[in-house]
Design brief:
Length: 93
Amino acid sequence: RSTALVAGCAAHLLYEAGRLSAEATADLLAKRLSPGTTVLDAAAFFEGFFSGAGQRLIYDEGLRAAVDAWLASLDEEAFVAHLPLLRRVFSNL
């Protein structure tokens, strides 16, 4: 879990520094939040990327689409289990 969390933080820093394009970032999010990734790793990456930067979802359509696809892929049990995480990230909006 900590590796995915750190990877999310690193991806966010690269994106903010302009070293990772919006398109590349959206592709990375789609990959890291895909159904092929364990729910725990996806959640850790999500938390690492968006902690303190949830407002990005308001303005960045590509990031929002990747997050939307991930949320839609979660079954009810996984979604409910991750509500506290989602609340923490979205409370910054």
